[in-house]
Every structure is written in C-alpha cells, then in structure tokens.
Design brief:
single chain, 113 residues, mainly alpha, globular
Length: 113
C-alpha cells in the first residue's frame, strides 16, 4: 500500500493545529466552537495530536524506510510548526482555502506519481 504525501502532511498539519490550539500564547480571535471545546479538553487534544502524528510517522516510515521516514517526518513536523506559528495568526488562509489547496495538491500528486 502506498500512502500519499499530501495526506501525511495534512495529518501533521491537523495534529500541530490541535497542539497550537491548546497553547495559552496563541491568539485566535474568531475561534470556532470545535476549537473552543478542544481548548478546554487539553488531554483529549494532546492525545488526538499524538495519535495523528504517530500514524503520520508510521505512514512515512512505511513509504520511505526507517531512517528516511523518520527524517522526513521530522522535517515535515518542523515545516508545519513554522507554518502554523508564523502564518496562522495573520489569517492568510481560511479553512475553505486550505481544503482547496489540499485537493489541488492531492490531484497533482495523483497525476505526477
């Protein structure tokens, strides 16, 4: 079975967003209801984030091998962390735009690979 890198990156993005949501330093002005609920349940948010990251790491290791998979996973986690911490407060992308970008990249990945 071959996993798409777009899905792996999306899982890491969502996992890091859950962790970012639980931070007291994050300034999310127009926070949706689901984010408010997950902010109150910090243990659940951290657990979901850990499960998503573990699943993404397993998929990356399965695709690339042990050493390359772990290294690639670390690189993607650092990239998503920087992306969320630096760009998320400015609200450059909405959820709809992010979903459209995901679909666009998934289609490109299917056409190229």
């Amino acid at each position: 079975m071959f996993f798409m890198y777009t899905i792996i990156v999306l899982l890491i993005f969502i996992a890091f967003l859950f962790l970012y949501n639980t931070s007291k330093k994050s300034k999310w002005a127009d926070k949706p209801l689901w984010a408010i609920n997950f902010e109150k349940q910090k243990t659940l948010s951290v657990t979901i984030s850990a499960i998503l990251m573990l699943f993404a790491c397993i998929m990356m290791v399965y695709d690339n091998g042990m050493v390359s998979g772990i290294f690639g996973f670390i690189v993607v986690v650092m990239a998503m962390g920087n992306l969320i911490v630096l760009l998320f407060p400015f609200r450059y992308l909405s959820i709809t735009q992010t979903a459209l970008l995901f679909l666009l990249f998934a289609v490109f990945e299917q056409l190229i690979f």
